[in-house]
């Protein structure tokens, strides 16, 4: 019989109940289906559906080094830069800015900004974070949780609760960093390398015949049924990973991961697309396919790396570049939105992914003449699409007069004159909160700073 007190739980209480039932089921060696039956009987079918989903969100981290981060402030400009009429400011769409009407804090789009028509959970949370790291290909100052723990490694560590063949994949150049419990990162050289990574040598040699592949999978699963250890909670993670591996080992996945002609068209890629853009689009296409197949939880990719000092000297090329970049990001979530999450049938893949964007230098938003590398007060920032787990809009920001605001993570209030570096850890922790699906206890395994109540949604959208 459904207990109304359990059925109506929300926020942390709801998440804690689901974690308790999962842990109790493991202790009692109950099959997952039986645990979900108990949840359904006691707390309702909606709670059971939620319990069947993975404990974490997937992530895509875009790292724009070597000056390329500047392009993203054209998609997601600072509020006073977007609304200024100063023709010398580094914003290409003066007078055409679009005010976001459903963000927690003020935010403006350029016409090319992605995700404007999607649900409010897909809005950007922009955090002042880190310091200017001009001309490094692997910036990390705005992607940290403090105490030497990188944001990228922390997200992957949290995601280990959801098994996959390759937990995290990075396209070089990538600096993954460290965090307790983080898995090894699988590195590839470019977007095509993502496909080659799953072009299994085993599938081409040992298990090339479909009947051999099917037989291998059947043998492995029969072994699990006979293995006394299979019922032990401590073996749950490796055995689940093994099941997935046995299913995919005998398949050559290259054909399933390669961008199709239709994919390339949807993402705006053709023979005239600059390589710096084509690489991003192709990587996003393959990432969407890898998520659908359950192959990975996290992909880290470089972006742009072109140091566009002279961008405003050729407005036609600038607008085309910004337009293509925005279209690719739009197409990615549209692509994911059309796919059911393989481990959460009540959600689409678009509802279970978090995206972060950080870089070396966003360049000076107040000066389009040569677009200098220096930033006001040596500031930097982090963009996060938190899928409903974060307060949206600008947290701090660069003002039209060149001053810089920080923010208080516990209240969300702006703090004039505060260094962006002082909130790096809080910004990273907010991104980790989104990937952990609101599990603050898990975030606290990595983060020791002030409360995040002002920048996260305790009850997700």
Q: What is shown here, in short?
A:
This protein is of the alpha/beta class and 461 residues long. It is built from 17 helices and 17 strands.
User: Domains counted in the coordinates: how many?
Assistant: 3
Helix content: 25-40%
Radius of gyration: 23 Å
Structural class: alpha/beta
In DSSP terms (H or I, runs of 4 or more residues), the helix count works out at 17
Strand count, sense and barrel status of the largest sheet are: 8 strands, mixed
Low-confidence stretches: 20-33, 45-51, 201-213
Overall number of strands:
17
Sheet with the most strands: spatial strand order: 8-7-9-1-12-13-4-14
> How many angstroms does the end-to-end distance come to?
28 Å
- On the 0 to 100 scale, the average pLDDT is 85
Instruction: Give the CA-based shape.
Output: globular
Strand content: 5-15%
Secondary-structure blueprint:
Elements: H1 4-7, H2 11-27, H3 32-43, H4 45-51, E1 58-64, H5 72-75, H6 79-82, E2 98-99, E3 108-109, E4 124-131, E5 144-146, E6 149-150, H7 151-158, E7 168-171, E8 186-188, H8 191-197, H9 201-204, H10 210-226, H11 236-249, H12 254-257, H13 261-266, H14 275-292, E9 298-302, H15 315-337, E10 340-341, E11 344-348, E12 353-359, E13 379-385, E14 393-395, E15 397-398, E16 404-407, E17 414-416, H16 424-435, H17 440-443
Parallel strand pairs: 1-9, 1-12, 4-14, 7-8, 7-9
Antiparallel strand pairs: 2-3, 4-13, 5-6, 10-11, 12-13, 15-16, 16-17
Helix pairs in contact: 2-3, 3-4, 7-16, 8-14, 10-11, 14-15
């Amino acid at each position: 019989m459904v207990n109304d007190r359990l059925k109506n739980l929300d926020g942390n209480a709801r998440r804690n109940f689901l974690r308790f039932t999962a842990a109790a089921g493991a202790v009692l060696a109950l099959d997952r289906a039986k645990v979900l039956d108990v949840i359904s009987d006691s707390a309702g079918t909606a709670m059971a559906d939620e319990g069947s989903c993975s404990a974490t969100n997937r992530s895509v981290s875009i790292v724009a080094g070597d000056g390329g981060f500047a392009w993203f402030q054209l998609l997601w400009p600072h509020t006073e830069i977007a609304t200024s009429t100063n023709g010398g400011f580094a914003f290409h769409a003066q007078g055409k800015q679009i005010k976001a009407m459903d963000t927690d804090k003020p935010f403006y789009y350029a016409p090319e900004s992605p995700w404007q028509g999607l649900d409010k959970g897909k809005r950007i949370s922009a955090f002042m974070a880190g310091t200017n790291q001009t001309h490094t290909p692997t910036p990390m100052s705005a992607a940290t949780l403090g105490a030497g723990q990188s944001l990228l490694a922390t997200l992957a560590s949290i995601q280990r609760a959801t098994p996959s063949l390759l937990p995290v994949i990075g396209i070089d150049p990538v600096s993954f960093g460290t965090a307790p419990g983080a898995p090894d990162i699988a590195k590839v050289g470019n977007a095509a390398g993502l496909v080659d990574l799953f072009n299994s040598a085993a599938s081409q040699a040992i298990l090339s015949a479909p009947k051999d592949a099917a037989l291998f999978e059947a043998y492995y699963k029969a072994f699990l049924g006979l293995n006394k250890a299979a019922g032990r909670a401590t073996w749950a993670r490796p055995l689940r990973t093994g099941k997935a591996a046995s299913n995919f080992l005998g398949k050559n996945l290259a054909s399933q991961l390669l961008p199709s002609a239709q994919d390339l068209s949807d993402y705006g890629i053709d023979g005239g697309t600059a390589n710096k853009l084509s690489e991003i689009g192709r990587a996003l296409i393959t990432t969407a396919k890898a998520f659908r197949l359950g192959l990975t939880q996290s992909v880290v990719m470089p972006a742009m790396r072109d140091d566009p000092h002279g961008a405003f000297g050729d407005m036609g090329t600038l607008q085309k570049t910004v337009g293509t970049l925005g279209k690719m990001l739009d197409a990615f979530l549209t692509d994911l939105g059309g796919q059911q999450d393989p481990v959460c049938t009540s959600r689409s893949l678009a509802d279970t992914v978090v995206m972060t964007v950080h870089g070396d230098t966003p360049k000076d938003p107040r000066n389009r003449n040569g677009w200098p590398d220096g930033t006001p007060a040596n500031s930097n920032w982090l963009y996060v699409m938190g899928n409903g787990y974060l307060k949206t809009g600008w947290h701090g920001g660069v003002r039209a007069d060149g001053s810089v605001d920080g923010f208080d993570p516990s209240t969300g209030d702006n703090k004039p004159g505060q260094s962006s570096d002082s909130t790096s850890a809080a910004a990273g922790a907010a991104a980790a909160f989104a990937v952990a699906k609101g599990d603050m206890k898990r975030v606290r395994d990595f983060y020791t700073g002030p409360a995040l109540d002002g920048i996260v949604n305790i009850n997700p959208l």
